[in-house]
């Protein structure tokens, strides 16, 4: 099936029913979203290893407070944020390639739409992050879903075998740069917007570093 520009636009911008409940409660409503579920593999990165990584990123309690502050600001803007992020991916062929159906060579609208729902929940989860074992384990799951180990499996699609690792951390910049205007939309002070933005940069970078783990050679992460 060849995807017409209109269908692609609909998939990229498609409204999704987003759960705004905490991660554990939201689980049944988002296909493939398994945060906090028993049976999820344990992260090969330990909480003891996570701590110095957070310190290296200067990610501290102030940042966690700023992430929490961002939650209420972002909660009812999730779809608009996803429109911007999907717009960026859709306009960047090298990124859109990871959503291509291997049979048709065209972007897979159903795949884009399924991932979009979990991406929306991820916005809330990033603001809510407790950096505990459950959080770490879902980081590992997201890592595997970008890598050859598990890409395409969750949505049962035929697509490229992996998201190239080099783009993971690179996407931190468009994601967090375009988030800033949304952080500023609800009347927070300029100083608070800066703090929330900085906290988001650190958290997204931390996550993409964790997501690079499956790509690293044994013992070299
Ligand atoms: C800051 C960087 C990135 C963020 C925050 C991000 C976020 C996410 C999230 C939240 C999911 C869904 C996870 C879940 O299943 O619960 C996901 C899946 C996915 N992302 Fe990313 N991502 C990033 C980088 C990239 C890049 C650079 C690409 C493409 C070049 C990409 C392509 C994909 C694909 C294809 C999936 C679906 C994987 C599957 O088959 O399960 N991502 N991403």
UniProtKB/TrEMBL annotation:
Signal peptide: 1-26
Any single Pfam family the record assigns to this protein: Protoglobin
Keyword set includes Signal: yes
Record keywords, A-Z: Signal
Signal in keyword set: yes
Gene3D superfamilies from the UniProt entry: Globins (1.10.490.10)
CDD domains: Pgbs
Organism: Roseateles paludis
Stored SUPFAM superfamilies: Globin-like
Name of protein: Protoglobin domain-containing protein
Ranges where the Globin-sensor domain occurs: 48-220
């Amino acid at each position: 099936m060849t995807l017409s520009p209109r269908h692609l636009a609909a998939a990229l911008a498609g409204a999704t029913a987003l759960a705004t409940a905490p991660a554990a409660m939201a689980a049944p409503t988002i296909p493939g979203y398994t945060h906090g579920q028993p049976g999820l593999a344990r992260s090969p990165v330990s909480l003891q290893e996570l701590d110095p990584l957070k310190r290296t990123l200067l990610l501290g309690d102030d940042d966690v407070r700023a992430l929490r502050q961002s939650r209420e600001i972002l909660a009812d803007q999730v779809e608009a944020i996803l429109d911007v992020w999907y717009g960026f991916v859709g306009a960047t062929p090298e990124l859109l390639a990871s959503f291509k159906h291997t049979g048709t060579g065209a972007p897979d609208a159903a795949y884009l739409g399924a991932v979009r729902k979990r991406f929306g929940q991820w916005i809330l989860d990033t603001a809510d992050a407790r950096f505990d074992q459950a959080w770490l384990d879902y980081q590992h799951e997201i890592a595997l879903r970008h890598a050859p180990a598990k890409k395409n499996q969750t949505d049962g699609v035929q697509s490229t075998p992996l998201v190239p690792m080099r783009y993971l951390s690179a996407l931190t910049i468009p994601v967090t740069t375009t988030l800033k205007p949304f952080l500023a939309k609800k009347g927070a002070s300029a100083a608070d917007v800066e703090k929330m933005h900085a906290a988001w940069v650190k958290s997204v970078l931390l996550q993409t570093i964790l997501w690079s783990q499956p790509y690293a050679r044994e013992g070299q992460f």
